[in-house]
Design goal:
The chain has six helices and five strands, in the order H-E-H-E-H-E-H-E-E-H-H. A five-stranded antiparallel beta sheet has the order 2-3-1-4-5, sandwiched between helices. It is elongated.
Length: 199
């Protein structure tokens, strides 16, 4: 069996992994200790990111004709591939943060939503919060004015309620006097009726 035939399944596997990916990031992992590599893989796995080491020639062949072909120029030396299907900035964010403590890890380049980014640009992308964080901030900013309005209306109602209490008491005191007047007027009429029946 020819070498090309043996390598084709690996190329197909890489192509399948990157198909539909929101982003992929290339890193140079040389110099990472076993403990650091294990910790990095765990963090990436928890974030739903696929992290694998492939030969550069295999990746080049898998990237042919795709939006990831722009990474060919960065495929030199040992390379690992971090693939994110959902959150476009997750891989760059986690790898960049990890590289601050593990100095041996080096981000080479990446493709985020079809655009190729170099090392410096990836570092900038890493500062963008995750989609969930952005959505929660947006929701918070939308809810904030509504919450403030409700709080103000509640304070007005409470203030209005305490001011209205004496007025309600005054109205209650005046109400019986209004009801008593017709009763007082009705008393002579009853007496007149009684006198008429006696006659």
């Amino acid at each position: 069996m020819a070498k090309v035939e043996l390598k084709q399944p690996i190329v197909d596997s890489i192509a399948a992994e990157v198909k539909g990916a929101a982003s992929i990031v290339l890193v140079d992992y040389r110099g990472l200790s076993v403990a650091e590599d294990t910790e990095l893989r765990q963090q990436l796995r928890e974030a739903g990111i696929v992290y694998k080491v492939y030969k550069n020639t295999m990746m080049k062949r898998a990237f042919e004709g795709t939006e990831f072909a722009g990474l060919d120029e960065y495929l030199a030396g040992p390379s690992a591939l971090a693939i994110s299907k959902d959150d476009a900035t997750a891989a760059a964010r986690i790898l960049s943060k990890f590289a601050k403590t593990a100095k041996a890890l080096e981000l080479k380049a990446g493709v985020v939503e079809g655009n190729v980014y170099g090392q410096e640009q990836l570092a900038e992308l890493a500062n963008i919060p995750s989609r969930d964080e952005l959505l929660s901030k947006l929701l918070g900013s939308i809810q904030s004015p509504i919450t403030n309005l409700a709080r103000v209306l509640n304070q007005i109602a409470e203030a209005g309620g305490s001011e209205a209490a004496p007025a309600v008491e005054e109205a209650a005191e005046e109400a019986p006097a209004v009801e008593e007047a017709p009763a007082a007027e009705a008393a002579p009429a009853v007496e007149a009726e009684e006198a008429a029946t006696e006659e």
